[in-house]
Task: structure prediction
Amino acid sequence: MVAQKNLMKLKLLPFFLTVSIGIGSQAQAADLLDTFRAAQANDPVFASARAAQQAGQEKLPQGRSLLMPNVSLSANSTFNDTTTRYLGATILPGGQSRYNSHGYGVNLTQPLFRQQNWLAYTESELQVVQSDAQFKVAEQDLIVRVAQAYFDVLIAQDSVQLAEAQKTAISEQLEQAKRNFEVGSATITDTHEAQARYDLTSAQEIAAQNNLEIKRRSLQQLINTMPKDLRHLGKEFKLESPQPADMEKWVDNAQLNNPLLSIAQASAEIAEKEVARNRGGHYPTVDLVANYSNNQSNGGSFGVGSDSSNKSVGVQINMPLFQGGAVNSKWREASANLERARQELENTRRSVALQTRQAYLGVVSGIAQVKALQQALTSSESVLEASKLGQEVGVRTNLDVLNAQQQLYSTRRDLFQAQYSYLVSQLRLKASVGMLGEDSLIRVNQALY
Result:
């Protein structure tokens, strides 16, 4: 009878694990989407990425300014104290004069031909592309980090609840072993075995509680508040194979759309333009120059004031001849940086292909693992039931029952872990092809209740 009661508790364990938070609290429990939006507003890493993108957008107007007119205004006001003494025969009187002079000028310079400025402008366009791609990487990374932290908390909670349930079941087994020993139907060994397993489970429960606290703190770092109740996987959880079901097609798609590759490609193109820009240090520059100035003085060496203005417009050519070897040195430096950027692009391309394959295999193998563990869970329940019945009729020992219980709880924990890992692998696969967004998170969130 006791064995049947214990077996009933084990069969009801999935239900108790999923509703242990309570029906009332589930109504207010945060889901994955709520947690993600909280992280969007509070995660400092994502806030830093957003600010970096805003800063990167300013590269374009800065580059465009190199092609626009440059207008400057200058003004001056000067007090003059002059003493004049003429030597030799002259009719000009000497003496001291004090007067003020002041003036202003406006100067306009419009670049007509400056190859370095034009290349700098085209570089700024690529820098904006880079900043946008970097922000997309940050957005996708936030989704994956939130999902991983969220499911880490869930598996930690499941581990605590499993340890508590296992401890309760072993406690009942321990009590049964003590009663059997007292009536002489079992040896003291059964009691010691149950006591040892009980003590081990108590230690595992403490470790699970400590791990849960750590995982909750990790999620707190993202959302800036201690997470309370979180929704668990429900009946809407489904195993879905990647579409298309061809790993190489996913890799090809990643080579076209992965934002990390966009960043590396833009870096390589910027390096190419840097080579051309530094080579342009030998080229002449041509500017349109216009100037207007006005100068006034209420005195002078001869005691007469003046008021003069000047207007000029023309084309100015500047031809660099020798700059101490700096231009050639910068050219060689830019060429070396170009080779580095090309190699980094190739490394990024290979890394993206590897990550895409890993994510694809993570989803496919995750599906197979979840199915296998579901079957293993059914088998473990049957083993425990048979062991308990066998103990009652004397063909199984207390240790057999304890081992069957341990196997059941381990299988259940592995199943939970495999389900969460499968969901994270799905997100990573979409991130590898640049398709991970809030809509993907909503789809995963539908599996929670």
